[in-house]
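TICKET #2291
ISSUE: user wants both folds in one file
ATTACHMENT 1:
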Amino acid sequence: MSIISAQLSDPVSWLVLAGGGLQATAHLFKNQIVLRLVLLAGTLHYIAYYFAASAQPLWPAIMATATLAIGAVIGLYRALTSPPKVTCNCLILSEANENVCNDHEVLRVVKK
């Protein structure tokens, strides 16, 4: 039996594989809330792996990963509680169109 198949037959190994897969997948999301929730799920898989990987829990790894989890929770809280950003995508081409975006800064294109 190869080393890889022996490792994959251990259910604990699937925790770290799932954690890595979740964290890699998290970076594909543009939505900050979804990104941070998936990142947090991956981090929790890593913490579970560090508890189960050996006879003694891997406390330094658990503490370091818990720090990352705290950062993800703080970022999630900020994403949930901060007001949405309002942007104006108006491009004003002439003075006649200034009233299109009267509440926002007017950008004029000047021909030379």
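ATTACHMENT 2:
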Amino acid sequence: MDSFILGTAGHIDHGKSALIRALTGIEPDRLKEEKKRGISIVLGYADISFPSGISIGIVDVPGHLKFIKTMVSGSTGMNGVLFVIAADDGIMAQTREHLLILKLLGIDMIIPVLTKIDIVSDETILIREREIKYFLKSYGYINSSQNIIRVSAKSGKGISELKSEIEKAIKGDNAKRTALKSMPSKIFLSIDRIITLKGFGTVLAGTLKYGNFSVGDEMQIMPAGFTARVKDMESHNKKIPFARRAMRISINVPSIKKENVRYGDVICVKDSLIETDSVFTRFFYDTANKKDFKNRTLLTFMTGGISVGAKGFILSGKKRPAPGDYAYVLFKLQNKISTMSGERFITRDAGAAVTVGGGVIIDPFADYRYDESKESIYEGMLSDDYEKSVYSFIAAGGNGDLKEIYKRLNLNFADFTSTIEKLKKDELIVADGKNKFAFPREDFDAGKSFLIETVSGSIKSETEKKKNAFKNGIGRQELCGIFERNFNKPESLFDILMDDLLYRKELVNDDGTIISKGFENKTGIENLPDEYISIIKRVESLLKTNNNSVPDLAELEKKAGAGRKALNYVLSLMIKEGRVIKVKRDIFYLKEQVEDIKKGLYDFFKSNEKLEPKDMKEIAGVSRKYAIPLLEYFDHIEYTVKRDNYRTKRQ
């Protein structure tokens, strides 16, 4: 069974810390300032064990306005909450805000506790219970409103009943979690306490929200990126070798300096989280707000132990959400954070010091444009079904980089890779050979059709081909550009598609030009229009002029009276058909010229062992300008071997 973290929430001085003392016998107020002021200013912790063997951690959350950030930090790691309301005061300002925050943070298990019943009349207690029932129902906590536990921490009245209710609720929660098809599995611990102990070094503490790890494991602190090995670990003042989800733990990492860690930083497996300053969310705008939510509203964005300034950009419909509306909102953060899909957040108006809304992070790093037609995909990204969630992340857009997608999800690497394999097996996605990129099957099929049609459309009729000899296919880079612009998908998908199309020979790579199947033999010289046949004849004539001192490419272009594109095209065909040999980047010879030079080398080596540049000049009848490229060409075709400043014939 997983561990369980139970928190407290409620207005200042409603008896939360006293309630924990009565339940556990542990003093949660840790600091001198807390003792002096009689309130909790940081998270307090205690634990309790039940006769059934269930053991839980309890988090005492501050209830006053100034430390609402700490309250959010504590709530983020909770499985359930003791929602405390004092019988004398009833529902107060922070009572309302705490319940809103708990709702926004997705905490479903609420145990309402009416405290200080020893200082009010029975009539007042009944009035308070009616108020609380209505209050809880108004926030959707209908089941919780049915059983309000009356308690006096001072006398101990109701404590036994409260313990029974807690144990019952935990058993129900465990059964609910067991029934889930899948749960978040990535190691994720938001740091809420940082201390230095003499002889030990830095100690970091928090609630391990998901995953498990052991002493000796190497962990990473994000977004800073520091790595450290866990030297020691404790939970509730007891050394433990192994930590599992929902445990309150402190870990000793002496290699990390205290000043390099911030509250809200996340402990995780190396390279498992992304750093981001832009998060895509499903946002709820609270009903208590007086005006519609404005685009580019400046707010305080809070998730885990992080509190950062942010601007909200409305995505859905580009209209202003009214109070009580849900909307897709992109928050641009003032500082980088590390989080993941499915994490909850709240937003506060820094000036008015009130919670205005919150919700759930869909994607902590959306590298694609919002598309209203994909809203079902965005919801699927939040699914607790691994396959649906991973598929939705792949289908949402972006470049299909699986490594980056993994960093944004709440799955550990083993669960992620096994899910990818399952999706491939079910033919829902297509990945490259190294599992670096993946895309939905429908994008793959549509992309193949697009490329085949695009290349096919470039193959003109015989009449048109006579006018333009170059439209027998498309260069790969040109085709990629057309694909990215018109099909609106990334180069990574184009590469997967081309590998498949070329492997299956549905398209053909003809010396760098992509052509349709069946057109491989339709690009020969015999199919060229007369004007290109004329260019070929002029090239052949020019190459024969001046014996072997052939004109270079620039001279050929000028003397042949052809444009560079046309000249390159006919030269490529002549090379392909073996009529011309490319000796250097801009030097070409007719095949028979090279054969004559090769015959001269053959005769030379009958009586000589060493071939020097001066010998090549004499054999070919050329200057050094041509002799050196010719020597290098014969080295390249392995007829000769270069040794220092001379060549020998390869044996």
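RESOLUTION: both attachments delivered.
EXTRA DETAIL ON ATTACHMENT 2: The longest helix spans residues 159-179.
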